[in-house]
Every structure is written in structure tokens, then in C-alpha cells.
């Protein structure tokens, strides 16, 4: 099924840890050239090393236009094209509304939502030059579907990504570019581990499939959306949450 992706090039933002690392490893395994992007160069290079000679690490802050431009330029310089963008970088610091400062709010919106616009804009010329491509966003169930205390800024950023996606999908369809999003439930990553054992136990109990998701669960959905088999899917979401959002 994934033969069409062999030899193509993907940029994975936030590819140095957690879900992004899982996506980068999976796409590397499927034979794509992978540019692994994070602010830490050492972490990005380490993941690229684990993938093999078809991958490189690159340090960029995707909440800045300069970072996104440099990332796109680096992919084109190294691999000659960009075919897929996995816009995955994100942060989820908790802050209840009563304590949340405007700076807290702006930082989450900038890293999670503004980065989506900036990274898509930066790769657009290369995707267009390639005659089309795939954009896969990592959103969340929190915001688009549910809420969670401490995450009003995060929920706003993740719901905002879907608003962006729907119009981008319409605008970019004539260029042969599809734009879709994966909505992870609770996925076991270092980021989630920081939420504490109580949170994790509560989540496991509330999930019909009775486990947290793995990064591979998300990577497989992203890989499908990037494949030729998903050519007629755009502006859509795939929820990968073990059934968590289903009503009892
Ligand atoms: P992690 O904290 O494990 O990893 C985050 C990644 O993003 C790291 O590679 C980090 O590297 C990078 N990153 C953060 N800020 C920036 C930035 N400004 N520029 C470039 N890279 C950046 O998070 P997860 O893997 O858990 O989450 C990944 C995505 O999945 C996020 O968008 C998150 O919202 C979403 N998600 C996660 C869920 C989960 O259960 N884990 C559930 C639902 C959605 P560095 O710090 O070096 O920059």
C-alpha cells in the first residue's frame, strides 16, 4: 500500500520526541527521506541517526517564520523536493484560567497554531513545485471534541488547527495538496508522562480499549493520510483514541 511513498521526502516537526519521533521512525521505515525538526539539534540528529542514511536532523523553532523557512530550505537542499509535511510540534503546559497569563496563552497559541500556518506556508512552494503533496496535522481530541482543566489555551490552539485545515484543504485542492489531521487521544509520551501517574491511571480507566495509545498508533494513521490510498481524503480528521470520546 505504501509503495507510492518510497523515495519521497517528509518534514516532521517536533520529530525528536514522542509522537513526532514515532512518525519520523515510521515514515523512515516506509522509505521516505525524513527531515526531523525540533529546537534541539542534538535530539533531532539522534532520531535521524536511528532512522538511517535517509534522514537528517535540523534545528528550528517552528513558531517563527525564519525557523520554518530555514527548515523548508534545508529539506529542498538535501533531498531536492518536499512531498509531505507532518506539522506535529506542540506543547501542553497546564494553567488554570485563574492563573493563566497572556504570555502563557500566547506561547501555546504560537507553538501549536501559529506554527501550523507558518510551516504550511513555508513548504507550499515546494509542494506546489512537486505537483501536489500531503499535509498532516497533529491536533488533539482536547479542544476539537473535549475539554480538560488547565488546557483552555491548548484546546483553543488544537481546535484552531482544524479551522485552519478546513479552509487550507479547499484552497490547496486545486494544487493537488491534501490537508488532514490526526486527533490523538492520550498517547504515552514523555510529554504525557509529565502529567503524573494519577492522570495516567484515570485516563486508562476511562478509555474503552483500556490502554493509552502508542506513538505507533498515531504514526500509522499519519502514514495512511500521506499515502496515495488517501488521495481522495481532504479536510478530514482521524481520531485515534481507543474509543475515549465515544458516549457511554
Ligand atoms: P513531546 O513533548 O513528547 O514532543 C514535542 C516535540 O515538539 C519535541 O520534539 C519538541 O522538541 C518539539 N517542539 C516543541 N516546541 C517546538 C518549537 N517551537 N519548534 C520546533 N519544535 C518544537 O510531545 P508529544 O509527542 O506528546 O506531542 C506531539 C504533538 O501531539 C503535539 O502537537 C501535541 O499537542 C499532540 N498531542 C499529544 C498527545 C499525547 O497524549 N501525547 C495527545 C493529543 C495530541 P524541542 O523541545 O527540542 O523543540
From TrEMBL:
Domain Ketoreductase: residue ranges: 8-185
GO biological process, one term: fatty acid elongation
The family this protein is said to belong to: Belongs to the short-chain dehydrogenases/reductases (SDR) family.
Source superkingdom: Bacteria
Name the UniProt record assigns to this protein: 3-oxoacyl-ACP reductase
NCBIfam families: PRK05653.2-2 (NF004202), PRK07231.1 (NF005559), PRK12826.1-4 (NF009468)
GO molecular function, one term: oxidoreductase activity, acting on the CH-OH group of donors, NAD or NADP as acceptor
PANTHER family linked: 3-OXOACYL-[ACYL-CARRIER-PROTEIN] REDUCTASE, CHLOROPLASTIC (PTHR42760:SF40), SHORT-CHAIN DEHYDROGENASES/REDUCTASES FAMILY MEMBER (PTHR42760)
Amino acid at each position: 500500500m505504501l509503495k507510492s511513498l518510497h523515495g519521497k521526502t517528509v518534514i516532521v516537526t517536533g520529530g525528536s520526541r514522542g509522537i513526532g519521533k514515532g512518525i519520523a521512525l515510521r515514515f523512515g521505515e516506509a522509505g521516505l527521506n525524513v527531515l526531523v525538526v525540533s529546537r534541539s539539534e542534538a535530539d533531532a540528529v539522534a532520531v535521524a541517526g536511528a532512522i538511517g542514511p535517509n534522514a537528517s536532523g535540523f534545528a528550528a523553532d517552528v513558531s517563527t517564520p525564519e525557523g520554518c523557512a530555514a527548515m523548508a530550505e534545508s529539506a529542498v537542499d538535501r533531498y531536492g523536493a518536499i512531498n509531505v509535511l507532518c506539522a506535529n510540534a506542540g506543547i501542553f503546559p497546564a494553567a488554570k484560567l485563574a492563573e493563566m497569563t497572556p504570555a502563557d496563552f500566547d506561547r501555546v497559541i504560537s507553538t501549536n497554531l501559529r506554527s501550523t500556518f507558518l510551516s504550511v506556508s513555508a513548504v507550499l512552494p515546494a509542494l506546489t513545485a512537486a505537483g501536489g503533496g500531503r499535509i498532516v496535522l497533529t491536533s488533539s481530541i482536547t479542544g476539537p471534541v473535549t475539554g480538560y482543566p488547565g488546557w483552555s489555551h491548548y484546546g483553543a490552539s488544537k481546535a484552531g488547527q482544524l479551522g485552519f485545515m478546513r479552509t487550507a484543504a479547499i484552497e490547496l485542492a486545486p494544487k493537488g495538496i491534501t490537508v488532514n489531521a490526526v486527533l490523538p487521544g492520550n498517547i504515552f509520551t514523555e510529554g504525557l508522562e509529565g502529567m503524573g501517574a494519577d492522570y495516567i491511571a484515570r485516563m486508562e480507566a476511562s478509555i474503552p480499549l483500556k490502554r493509552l495509545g502508542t506513538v505507533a498508533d498515531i504514526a500509522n494513521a499519519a502514514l495512511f493520510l500521506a499515502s496515495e490510498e488517501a488521495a481522495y481524503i481532504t479536510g478530514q480528521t482521524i481520531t485515534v483514541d481507543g474509543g475515549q470520546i465515544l458516549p457511554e
